[in-house]
From TrEMBL, chain A:
InterPro entries for this protein: AAA+_ATPase, ABC_transp_ATP-bind, ABC_transporter-like_ATP-bd, ABC_transporter-like_CS, Oligopep_ABC_C, P-loop_NTPase
Record has Transport as a keyword: yes
SUPFAM superfamilies named among the record's database cross-references: P-loop containing nucleoside triphosphate hydrolases
Keywords assigned: ATP-binding, Nucleotide-binding, Transport
Recorded GO MF terms: ATP binding; ATP hydrolysis activity
Stored PANTHER family: ABC TRANSPORTER, ATP-BINDING PROTEIN, TRANSPORT ATP-BINDING PROTEIN
The protein, known as: Dipeptide/oligopeptide/nickel ABC transporter ATP-binding protein
PROSITE patterns (UniProt xref): ABC_TRANSPORTER_1, ABC_TRANSPORTER_2
Chain spans, region Disordered: 325-350
Automatic annotation (TrEMBL), chain B:
Family as reported in the entry's similarity comment: Belongs to the ABC transporter superfamily.
Example of a GO biological process term: peptide transport
Family matches, as Pfam families: ABC_tran (PF00005), oligo_HPY (PF08352)
Name used for this protein in its record: ABC transporter ATP-binding protein
A molecular function (GO) term: ATP hydrolysis activity
Superkingdom assignment: Bacteria
Gene Ontology, cellular component aspect: plasma membrane
Principal location class: membrane
Gene3D superfamilies: P-loop containing nucleotide triphosphate hydrolases
Keyword Cell membrane: yes
InterPro entries for the chain: AAA+_ATPase (IPR003593), ABC_Ni/Peptide_Import (IPR050388), ABC_transporter-like_ATP-bd (IPR003439), ABC_transporter-like_CS (IPR017871), Oligopep_ABC_C (IPR013563), P-loop_NTPase (IPR027417)
Compartment list: Cell membrane
Length: 350, 321
C-alpha cells in the first residue's frame, strides 16, 4: 500500500472532570494508532462515549492530545504547531460535523460560507468556482442565494461538505455526518462521500455508530471500545467475520428482523463492567486480560489489508501461554523485569 | 375483539395563506388490545401528524377535516377540554421524538414523576414518592436516582425515565414517536427490550412510529407504511418485510445499508415531493400506474389482512405465502 496521508501514533487524551475538590482524570482515548491512506474511507465505529468523536476532535486540532503523534505527510504536526492548527494544516484537513442545523450561521447566505472558505485559503471566489462547488455536491447554483433555514437537512449537510471541499483538502473528518438526517436523504450523502473519494482521491475518516453505513461506505473499518481500538481491517471482513467479542455485540445490537433476539443482555452487562474498569477485559476465561493487556493479533488478510484484533482469545496458542506465564511469574508486590519474564516464558515454551 | 383505537378516514390539513397542505389523507387503521402497531415513513409523510391527531394535540393551522378517531368506543374528537385532561396520560400516553430533552432541567427526576401522581391521582407526596421509586425500578434504574437532575443521567437513562413517566398511570395505549432515534445502537436495543418487557407486564397497546423499518419489524405485530399522508401498505409486520408489495415500501427498506450480503450501490429515496394532484413517487414505479397519475390509490385488501395502495392490474404474488 502507498504511504499513508495521515498517521496517528499512540494518541491519548485525558479530560479533567469534577470540581476543584473532586477532580479526577478520565481517559477518553488511550494509546490509539492508525493510518489514513489517500483515496480511502476509513470508518471508526463504536457506541456513544467510546471516544470516537474525541479522536476526530484531536485530529481536527480542536483538542490538544495528552500524548501521541499525528503525522501528516510524515511530519509530526503536534510538535511543529504546538497549540492551534495552522491555516496550512486546515488546508489539508477539513471537518464535517454531525449537526447541519448548528454548523451553518443562520444569518448568512450559502454563498457567504463558500466564499469565505475559498478566500481564507487563498483561492479566488469566482462565480465559476462557486458553481463548481455546488454542482460537485449535487446542489443547484440558485441555492447560493438561499439561507440555511430554507434548505433541508440533507441539503445543508451538502453545503457543509462543499465548504470543506472549497479548500481542496486531502483529508475530510466526518463525524456522524448522516445521523441527524432523514432516511430519505441519508444514502444520497453517503454516495456523495464515496464519489469524492473516487474522483478526488480524498482520504476520509467516517465516524459513525451506524454499522450498516460503515459497511456500505468504508474501505477499512476500525472498532473502538472504551477509548481503545479493539479491531480493524477490511470493512466487509470486520462486519462479516468479527473477531472481537465487542464487535460481535455491537453487530448483534443492530435491529435485523432476520436474526431477532440475538442481542444478549448478559454480554452487555459484562461490557459495562469493562467500561467501569477499563484495564480488565471481561472475556478471557481465566481473566487473562485483567493481568496483561492484549496486543494486536493478525487474524486474516483481505485485499492486502490485515484484519487484526486486540484480544487474548484470538492469540496464537504459544502467545497465550507466554502471557499467562508472564503474569503468574510475577509475585504480588514485587516488580519483575518484563523482558526477563518473557524470556523465561519463551524458554519454557520452547 | 373490540379494538382499543380505531382511526377511520382521517384527514388533516395544514392551512396557510392561500395554500393548503394535506398532512394526512384518508388514513384508517385500528389497534387491538395488547397489540403493537407500527407506522413507518420518511419525514413529512404524516406519521407524527397522526400521533398528534390521536392525542388531540394538533393546533391551528392544522385541522382535522374528515374522519373519526375512536378510543374504546369513545369519540376522541368530541372530548371537551376537561375530558381531555383526564384522557391524556391516563388513557393514552405519548413518548415524544426528542423525549430525552423533554425533561425539565431545573427539577429532579423524582420531583417530575411525583408531580404526575399528585396532579392526576391526587396522591399524598410521600406515597407519590414511593410510587416514583417503584416506577424507576420498573425500567431498571436505581430508585436512588430520583434525586438526580436530568443532566446527570445518560441519554439512554433519560429516555427510560420518560418511558417510565409515560406508563405511570397505566395507559391503555402508548404512542411512541421515534423513541430511539437519537440513541446509539446498543442503547437503542436496551430501550427496545425494556419496552417489550413493560408491554408484557402491563399489557398496553403501542402505536410505534419510526423511519427505521428493521427496528419496527422487530417490535411490531402489524404495520403500515405511509407516504405523502396516505397509508400505502398495511399488513402483518413480518409479511410486509418479507414481501413488500408497494414500490415505496421496497424503497424505504432499501434506504438502509444492509449488514449482510454483497455490497451494492443504493439509490435512497426519491426526492420528489408530493403535490396536490400527483403521487410524486409514481415517477419511480416500474409497472402500470394508470390510476396513480392523480393521487395515491386507495388501499385495497389483496389477501386477508394485507392491504396495499396499488392499481389493480397485477396480482399480489407473495402475499398469500
Amino acid at each position: 500500500m502507498t504511504e499513508p496521508l495521515l498517521s496517528v501514533r499512540g494518541l491519548t487524551k485525558d479530560f479533567q472532570v469534577g470540581t476543584v475538590f473532586s477532580r479526577r482524570r478520565v481517559r477518553a482515548v488511550n494509546d490509539v494508532s492508525f493510518d489514513l491512506p489517500a483515496g480511502r474511507i476509513t470508518a471508526l465505529v463504536g457506541e456513544s462515549g467510546s471516544g470516537k468523536s474525541t479522536i476526530a476532535r484531536c485530529l481536527a486540532r480542536l483538542e490538544q492530545p495528552s500524548a501521541g503523534q499525528v503525522l501528516l505527510d510524515g511530519e509530526d504536526v503536534l510538535r511543529t504547531e504546538r497549540r492551534r492548527a495552522s491555516r496550512a494544516y486546515r488546508r489539508k484537513v477539513q471537518m464535517v460535523f454531525q449537526d447541519p442545523f448548528g454548523s451553518l450561521n443562520p444569518v448568512h447566505r450559502i454563498e457567504h460560507f463558500l466564499t469565505r472558505a475559498l478566500v481564507l485559503h487563498g483561492h479566488s471566489a469566482t462565480p465559476e468556482a462557486l458553481r463548481e462547488l455546488m454542482t460537485t455536491v449535487g446542489l443547484t447554483e440558485d441555492m447560493l442565494q438561499s439561507y440555511p433555514h430554507e434548505l433541508s437537512g440533507g441539503q445543508r449537510q451538502r453545503v457543509s461538505i462543499a465548504r470543506a471541499l472549497a479548500v481542496e483538502p486531502r483529508l475530510i473528518l466526518a463525524d456522524e455526518p448522516t445521523s441527524m438526517l432523514d432516511v430519505s436523504v441519508r444514502v444520497g450523502v453517503l454516495n456523495l462521500m464515496r464519489r469524492l473519494r473516487d474522483e478526488r482521491n480524498i482520504a476520509m475518516l467516517y465516524i459513525t455508530h451506524d454499522l450498516g453505513s460503515a459497511r456500505y461506505l468504508a474501505d477499512t473499518t476500525m472498532v473502538m471500545f472504551a477509548g481503545e481500538l479493539v479491531e480493524g481491517g477490511d470493512a466487509l471482513a470486520v462486519m462479516d467475520a468479527p473477531a472481537h467479542p465487542y464487535t460481535r455485540l455491537l453487530l448483534s445490537a443492530v435491529p435485523d428482523p432476520e436474526r431477532a433476539g440475538s442481542y444478549d443482555p448478559v454480554e452487555r452487562a459484562k461490557l459495562r463492567e469493562a467500561i467501569l474498569n477499563p484495564t480488565s477485559c471481561p472475556y478471557g476465561d481465566d481473566g487473562t486480560c485483567s493481568r496483561t493487556e492484549p496486543v494486536r493479533h493478525i487474524v486474516g488478510e483481505d485485499d492486502g489489508q490485515p484484519h487484526w484484533v486486540r484480544c487474548h482469545l484470538r492469540a496464537p496458542a504459544s502467545d497465550i501461554a507466554r502471557r499467562v506465564l508472564k503474569a503468574t511469574d510475577r509475585p504480588d508486590g514485587e516488580a519483575t523485569d518484563d523482558t526477563d519474564a518473557t524470556e523465561k516464558a519463551e524458554t519454557t515454551a520452547a | 375483539m373490540e379494538p382499543v383505537l380505531e382511526v377511520n378516514g382521517l384527514r388533516v390539513e395544514y392551512r396557510g395563506d392561500g395554500r393548503t397542505v394535506v398532512g394526512a389523507d384518508d388514513v384508517s387503521f385500528s389497534i387491538g388490545a395488547g397489540e403493537v402497531f407500527g407506522l413507518a415513513g420518511e419525514s413529512g409523510c404524516g406519521k407524527s401528524t397522526i400521533a398528534n391527531a390521536v392525542m388531540r394535540l394538533l393546533k391551528p393551522p392544522a385541522e382535522i377535516t374528515a374522519g373519526s378517531i375512536r378510543f374504546q368506543g369513545r369519540d376522541v374528537l368530541a372530548l371537551d377540554a376537561r375530558e381531555l385532561r383526564a384522557f391524556r396520560w391516563r388513557e393514552i400516553a405519548m413518548v415524544f421524538q426528542s423525549a430525552m430533552n423533554s425533561l425539565n432541567p431545573v427539577l429532579t427526576v423524582g420531583e417530575q414523576i411525583v408531580d404526575i401522581f399528585t396532579t392526576h391521582e391526587r396522591m399524598k407526596k410521600r406515597a407519590a414518592r414511593e410510587r416514583a421509586g417503584e416506577l424507576l425500578e420498573l425500567v431498571g434504574i436505581d430508585p436512588g436516582r430520583l434525586k438526580a437532575y436530568p443532566h446527570q443521567l445518560s441519554g439512554g437513562m433519560r429516555q427510560r425515565v420518560v418511558i417510565a413517566m409515560a406508563v405511570a398511570l397505566r395507559p391503555r395505549l402508548l404512542i411512541m414517536d421515534e423513541p430511539t432515534t437519537a440513541l446509539d445502537v446498543v442503547v437503542q436495543q436496551e430501550i427496545m427490550a425494556q419496552i417489550r418487557d413493560l408491554q408484557r407486564e402491563l399489557g398496553f397497546s403501542i402505536l410505534f412510529i419510526t423511519h427505521d423499518m428493521s427496528l419496527m419489524v422487530e417490535l411490531s405485530d402489524r404495520m403500515g407504511v405511509m407516504y405523502g399522508g396516505r397509508i400505502v401498505e398495511l399488513a402483518d409486520a413480518k409479511d410486509l418485510f418479507a414481501h413488500p408489495l408497494h414500490p415505496y415500501t421496497e424503497a424505504l427498506m432499501n434506504a438502509f445499508p444492509p449488514l449482510t450480503g454483497p455490497r451494492q450501490e443504493l439509490t435512497g429515496l426519491f426526492d420528489a415531493p408530493r403535490t396536490a394532484d400527483s403521487c410524486g413517487f409514481h415517477v419511480r414505479c416500474p409497472e402500470d400506474r394508470s390510476d396513480c397519475s392523480t393521487n395515491i390509490p386507495d388501499l385495497r385488501e389483496v389477501a386477508p389482512g394485507r392491504w396495499v395502495a396499488r392499481s389493480g392490474a397485477h396480482s399480489p404474488e407473495g402475499a398469500s405465502r
